[in-house]
Design brief:
With 254 residues, the chain is α/β, with parallel strands linked by helices. The protein has a single domain, classed as 3-Layer(aba) Sandwich (Rossmann fold), CATH 3.40.50. It is 46% helix and 15% strand. Strands 3-2-1-4-5-6-7 form a seven-stranded parallel β-sheet, with helices on both faces. Helix 1 packs across helix 8 and helix 4 packs parallel to helix 5. The longest helix is centred in the middle third of the chain and has 29 residues.
Length: 254
């Protein structure tokens, strides 16, 4: 029996239509899962679904605002209705507004917090009944190295990602009795549209990242697929409540 086989499983990936989220959705599909791609951009989600279907997997696009509980309740119902249940939830949706604390408005703070951490709480609540009914499930939370480090231009982002690690621990302890494992992965500097903007905004970022990373490069979305499949599969049934860096060694360098 292949402990990493996801055949027959249904995965919901928020923000699954691009970047790390798409890489995870594609990786879970390659392992056999059916995938619900959740996002606000319907056209972009439809494109992601088409690319997943090209590898022979089942997929559906669901339009939802992840900051609204009612929208996420509908999302869970739709995903389960179309694909037959929910076994895996990946809380990947996220954003950042790069400003120093003294320059960030309350509205900007709330935008980042609602998108990054409140959405994970609400989506987990929405999917929980389906996992409990199925006798178990997996929740994967997209954290960040900024749950470990600070930066002057990421007050809301770092706070939300630190909160993601603690939310992971809380849900892991709360839902273990239901056979649900909840874990967090901490991407390092991955080459995505979001980090390309960061390289434009933060002078010298590219050079500093490469110099500090033992692997000597930026990560790719393919580098996240393996940890996602592991945490979504039977292979991780006795792993819960942990935060795992996927950063090429960046966080262990002094």
């Amino acid at each position: 029996m292949n402990s990493f086989d996801l055949t027959g499983k249904v995965a919901v990936v928020t923000g699954g239509n691009g970047g790390i989220g798409f890489g995870i959705a594609r990786g879970l599909a390659r392992a056999g899962a059916s995938v619900a791609v959740v996002g606000r951009d319907a056209a972009k989600s439809a494109g992601a679904v088409s690319r997943i279907e090209e590898i022979g997997a089942r997929a559906v696009a669901i339009e939802a605002d992840v900051t609204e509980s009612a929208a996420l309740d509908r999302m869970a119902e739709t995903a389960a209705g179309h694909l037959g249940g929910i076994d895996i939830l990946v809380n990947n949706a996220g954003t950042n507004i790069r400003k120093r604390p003294e320059d960030m408005s309350e509205e900007e703070w709330r935008t980042v917090m609602d998108t990054n951490i409140t959405s994970a709480f609400l989506a987990s609540k929405a999917c929980y009944p389906f996992m409990k009914r199925a006798g178990g499930g997996k929740i994967l939370n997209n954290g960040s190295m900024f749950s470990i480090f600070g930066a002057p231009w990421a007050p809301a982002y770092a706070a939300s990602k630190g909160g993601m690690v603690q939310l992971t621990k809380v849900l892991a302890t709360a839902w273990a009795e239901d056979g649900i494992q909840v874990n967090c992965f901490l991407p390092g500097w991955i080459d995505t549209a979001l980090t390309r903007r960061a390289r434009q905004d933060v002078e010298g970022l590219h050079e500093r990242v490469v110099a500090r990373t033992p692997a000597g490069r930026w990560g790719s979305i393919e580098d996240i697929e393996g940890i996602a499949v592991f945490l979504a599969s039977r292979a991780s049934d006795f792993v819960t409540g942990v935060a795992i860096p996927v950063d090429g060694g960046f966080s262990v360098m002094g």
